[in-house]
Amino acid sequence: MRILRTQSILSFFILSSFSGFKAYSQPSKINIVQDPKFEMLLNEKRKINSSITVNDRYKVQIFYGTNEEAKKNLSQFKKEFRNLDGTIIYSNPSYKVWVGTFKTRIEAEKNYKEILKKYPTALLIRPNK
Fold first, then answer.
1. What does each C-alpha distance from 114 to 54, 62, 92 come to in angstroms?
2. pLDDT of 71-107, one tens digit each?
3. Superkingdom of the source (predicted)?
4. What is the CATH number of the domain that holds 96?
């Protein structure tokens, strides 16, 4: 009986001491201050991302092999064809070097003929990712 009474008295004091404190919380309105350059960069990134589509574009694959050789081929390609972009794609277990992003097959074939002179193993592809 005595233990029950001391527990109830102790719990009463604990609860009353916590109820006496004023509760502080976060303000309901949040004001975010951001650099305007950030918004400009974000809009540019959105434009770039919207223009990058893999499924409906043609590319030319100029190399298939190891990572080191792919890097060498890509750097050599960029020196020879400054107006075309290129990238290295990893396809287990090898690396591929894809160059160009052509909207139409005719445009891709024109560039493919020029690339074929320097890279005789080049392939005209339409990647499906």
1. 22, 12, 29
2. 999 999 999 998 888 999 888 889 999 999 888 899 9
3. Bacteria
4. 3.30.70.1070
